[in-house]
Amino acid sequence: MTVNHAASRPKSIRVPRILSIAGTDPTGGAGVQADLKSISAMGGYAMAVVTALVAQNTRGVRSVHLPPVSFLREQLEAVSDDVEIDGVKIGMLADADTVTTVKAWLDEVRPPIVVLDPVMVATSGDRLLAEDAEAAVRDLCRSADLITPNVPELAVLADASEAQTWADAVAQARLVSARCDTVVLVKGGHLVGDRVHDALVDARSAPEGSPVPDGLFEADAPRVDTECTHGTGCTLSSAMATRLAAGDDWPTALITVKAWLTRALRSADALHVGQGHGPVDHFVDLR
């Protein structure tokens, strides 16, 4: 039986317990492996439930194996029956049955922080979500406190052409936020320019008590000249889940995570991992 620990949670959490629900990456730069590193780097205790076994490397995805959803449910219950979960990051879900299983568990357990990275396409261009699962992911967005689509994924959620400017991306984020009744972290990494912009957008119809001042909070940083961008979406979303669960206010969480990710990108080339899009250096601050 799943236990709801919400009533007994302390107001202040020293080490947030964060669960990643995502697919794997054998080379360690994306998916569950990246999430575990990100959560740890941001000061959390990392846990993971695997949705998909992915044969991939820095150059692309070779194949995907989906465990039975009954086993996925067993994994989820094994964690929530025993551990108080302070935050959840959701990544690759692959198909509609997986999405439905995760949503049903979320509705029962109701973790205090849920961050959804609506993974649809890998950095390599490989599709990671079945087209018939898009509607299920849109529905799942309503169960998340924050969603973190990249520019192509934002366009899919907005039923629009891919944004070419930052202003267009923010406008699409407002549309998705209102439509999905959640906060959107819009990311400008796919756009051109010397600086990379990110923003928290809250366009919900009842913004009273919104965690985002005035419904929009922007942060930017110099663009890092590197090909090592494998798993940046996984890394950012799991880091945000950790800092929010730790008690950071939302703007502070974004500033902290964005500064750390910029440092991780700057030192990524020194890792010399893979021949394609290499991973970021999650533990840059320890070196």
Q: Main β-sheet: number of strands, strand sense, barrel status?
A: 9 strands, mixed
The unreliable regions are 1-10
Strand content: 15-25%
Q: Number of helical runs?
A: 8
Order of helices and strands: EHEEHEHEHEHHEEEHH
Average residue pLDDT:
91
> Number of DSSP strands?
9
Shape: globular
* Strand arrangement in the largest pleated sheet: 3-2-1-4-5-6-7-8-9
Task: Report what the structure shows.
The chain is an alpha/beta fold. It has helices spanning 31-41, 69-80, 96-109, 134-141, 151-158, 166-180, 232-245, 250-266; strands at residues 17-23, 45-57, 60-65, 87-90, 114-116, 146-147, 183-187, 195-201, 216-222. Strands 3-2-1-4-5-6-7-8-9 form a 9-stranded mixed β-sheet, sandwiched between helices. Helix 2 packs parallel to helix 3 (96-109), helix 5 packs across helix 6 (166-180) and helix 7 packs antiparallel against helix 8 (250-266). The longest helix is centred in the C-terminal third of the chain and has 17 residues, at 250-266. It is globular, with a radius of gyration of 17 Å. It starts with 16 loop residues before the first strand and ends in a 21-residue tail after the last helix. Residues 1-10 have low confidence and may be disordered.
